[in-house]
């Protein structure tokens, strides 16, 4: 065989090898032929490769020689298997996936529409486990592979969210809004609303930090020129005044009827204890003093006994 024919054969073998590899690549959707039926399911074939389709991995009635579209993933033993349940996400496609389990020192698992649940690694979750998603929260993720070639779910980056979001109209100001939290940082929480708008909740506009993936409801307090929203989870002032005052009264009742805070206290101390601004604290204290429920003296606020 001359060198030209030899090279042609080598190219053909390399092409066939790539076809075989692609036919059984985890995370892909392929079209297979049903080669034979077994006790536990079916054997699918493509390009001289075979893969198992367990009976629990299909809701379809299929027969030998049928063509079936199947998604490939690794089972608990690490073996590549097929399912005719096609996932809602892919390596290129992002989507909201529901959290179904949470494992300390590992991460959380989401459902992507196939029988196996997929891991979101703790490396992609907040450092504090108290801010990890809970069951039924949702994360905006796509498929990726880890170093061991296993499928994992990867949360979208800020660039991806900016690309996928829709600009909000200017008439959204003051309207109620809802969405899932997709990013946390020291300054606040970012959400994608159910309409597909990006929103930001500054840490001063919430009572407590929401979890990653949590569904939150608030109101629009600003619409930026690029169509992004500033959102508050706090009620309007009239409602907040009563809520804040009640919170302060409860705090005092739980601490012997007195607290080391007045309208002269530092904003940081007030926020750390009550999770409200100093302005909100002063309004609430002023209301309580007008109602003759509290008094301030010697750097303290005390309940007025009746």
From TrEMBL:
<dbReference type="InterPro" id="IPR036388">
    <property type="entry name" value="WH-like_DNA-bd_sf"/>
</dbReference>
<dbReference type="Pfam" id="PF21191">
    <property type="entry name" value="CvfB_1st"/>
</dbReference>
<feature type="domain" description="Conserved virulence factor B second S1">
    <location>
        <begin position="94"/>
        <end position="154"/>
    </location>
</feature>
<feature type="domain" description="Conserved virulence factor B third S1">
    <location>
        <begin position="165"/>
        <end position="235"/>
    </location>
</feature>
<dbReference type="InterPro" id="IPR014464">
    <property type="entry name" value="CvfB_fam"/>
</dbReference>
<dbReference type="Pfam" id="PF21543">
    <property type="entry name" value="CvfB_2nd"/>
</dbReference>
<dbReference type="InterPro" id="IPR012340">
    <property type="entry name" value="NA-bd_OB-fold"/>
</dbReference>
<dbReference type="InterPro" id="IPR039566">
    <property type="entry name" value="CvfB_S1_st"/>
</dbReference>
<dbReference type="InterPro" id="IPR040764">
    <property type="entry name" value="CvfB_WH"/>
</dbReference>
<dbReference type="Pfam" id="PF17783">
    <property type="entry name" value="WHD_CvfB"/>
</dbReference>
<dbReference type="InterPro" id="IPR048588">
    <property type="entry name" value="CvfB_S1_2nd"/>
</dbReference>
<feature type="domain" description="Conserved virulence factor B first S1">
    <location>
        <begin position="26"/>
        <end position="84"/>
    </location>
</feature>
<feature type="domain" description="Conserved virulence factor B-like winged helix">
    <location>
        <begin position="247"/>
        <end position="303"/>
    </location>
</feature>
<comment type="similarity">
    <text>Belongs to the CvfB family.</text>
</comment>
<dbReference type="InterPro" id="IPR048587">
    <property type="entry name" value="CvfB_S1_3rd"/>
</dbReference>
<protein>
    <submittedName>
        <fullName>S1 RNA-binding domain-containing protein</fullName>
    </submittedName>
</protein>
<dbReference type="Pfam" id="PF13509">
    <property type="entry name" value="S1_2"/>
</dbReference>
């Amino acid at each position: 065989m001359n060198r030209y024919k030899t090279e042609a054969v080598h190219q053909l073998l390399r092409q066939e090898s790539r076809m075989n590899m692609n036919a059984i690549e985890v995370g892909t959707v392929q079209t297979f032929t049903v080669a034979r039926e077994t006790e536990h399911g079916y054997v699918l074939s493509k390009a001289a490769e075979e893969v198992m389709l367990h009976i629990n991995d299909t809701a379809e009635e299929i027969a030998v020689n049928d063509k079936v579209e199947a998604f490939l993933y690794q089972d608990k033993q690490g073996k590549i298997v097929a399912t005719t349940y096609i996932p809602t996400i892919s390596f290129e496609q992002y989507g909201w996936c529901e959290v179904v389990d949470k494992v300390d020192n590992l991460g959380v698992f989401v459902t992507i529409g196939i029988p196996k649940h997929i891991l979101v690694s703790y490396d992609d979750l907040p450092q504090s486990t108290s801010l990890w998603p809970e069951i039924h929260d949702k994360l905006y993720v796509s498929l990726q592979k880890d170093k061991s070639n296993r499928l994992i779910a990867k949360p979208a980056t800020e660039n991806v969210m900016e690309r996928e979001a829709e600009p909000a109209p200017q008439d959204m100001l003051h309207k109620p809004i809802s969405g899932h939290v997709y990013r946390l940082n020291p300054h606040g929480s970012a959400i994608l609303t159910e309409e597909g708008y990006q929103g930001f909740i500054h840490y001063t506009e919430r009572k407590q930090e929401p979890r990653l993936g949590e569904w939150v409801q608030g109101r629009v307090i600003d619409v930026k020129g690029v169509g992004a929203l500033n959102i508050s989870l706090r009620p309007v002032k009239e409602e907040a005044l009563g809520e804040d005052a009640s919170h302060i009264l409860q705090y005092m009742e739980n601490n012997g009827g007195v607290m080391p805070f007045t309208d002269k206290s530092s904003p940081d101390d007030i926020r750390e204890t009550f999770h409200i601004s100093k302005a909100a604290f002063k309004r609430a204290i002023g209301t309580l003093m007008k109602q003759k429920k509290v008094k301030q003296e010697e750097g303290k606020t005390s309940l007025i006994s009746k």
